[in-house]
Amino acid sequence: MPGAPLNSFHPIIILNGFDHKIHGLLKKTIEALLTFRIHPRRLELNKKEKIRDQNNIEKVQPYYRAMQYTEMILTDIAWSPSEIINSIQDIDVDSYRDVMNKFWSHLHMESLMYGNIDKSMAQNLVRELEKPFLSNRNFRPVSLQEMIRIREVEINDGENLVYEKTTAFHNNSAVVFNLQCGIQNTKDNMVVSLFNEIIEESCFNVLRTQVKAV
């Protein structure tokens, strides 16, 4: 199931199912991706759909739109609907093929496997994933120095910033309250994640059942 974070180009492939079928599923998935060829008409339909979605972006629920604005304001790899629309206009089959050929010949992979899989099986799956790329003479792994890291705008200590946006499509509202915790590291990320788990239920209960409309 390919996916990616909003506005960024970090494709994710998620495979799940019976452990004795995963190897074959992974192989077929990679083969399909590397041999995929898009039809010009399909590309144009996808472009129109993407442009329509961006033009209608203000109609989505305020909560999702607030999260999108937060990302556009605080991260350096995020684009507005108008920027996306302007960029997509000139995409044709040739430019699509050129980008994808470059992407498949120059990338960095990371894998996470869990479940009914031992170390040997995990290593075999990784080799299966890498094989089509390493056998390509034009393939070169992306070095750590070349990788694009998502950076955020730093909010200074004691600084309070507010960004407000109104919409004519919804009567309800949403607020994203963002607290920065400094430079990321594994331990702090886990502490914040655990804190989120602890307060989530009580916050949901208060906001949904106890807070009265003003």
Task: Give an overview in words.
This protein is mainly alpha-helical. The chain contains 7 helices and no strands. The chain has helices at 19-35, 40-55, 62-74, 81-88, 93-104, 119-134, 186-210. Helix 1 packs parallel to helix 6 and helix 2 runs antiparallel to helix 4 (81-88). The protein is globular, with a radius of gyration of 22 Å.
Keywords:
about 210 residues; mainly alpha; 7 helices; disordered N terminus
**Sheet bearing the most strands, described?**
none
Tally of alpha and pi helices: 7
What structural class do you assign from the helix and strand content? mainly alpha
Mean pLDDT: 86
Rg of Cα set: 22 Å
- Tell the overall outline: globular
Strand content: under 5%
The total beta strand count reads: 0
Low-confidence regions: 1-8
Helix and strand pattern: HHHHHHH
Proportion of residues in helical segments: 40-55%
How far is the first residue's CA from the last residue's CA?
Answer: 42 Å
Produce the secondary structure layout:
Layout: H1 19-35, H2 40-55, H3 62-74, H4 81-88, H5 93-104, H6 119-134, H7 186-210
Short structural summary:
By secondary structure, the protein is mainly alpha-helical. It has helices at residues 19-35, 40-55, 62-74, 81-88, 93-104, 119-134, 186-210. Helix 1 runs parallel beside helix 6.
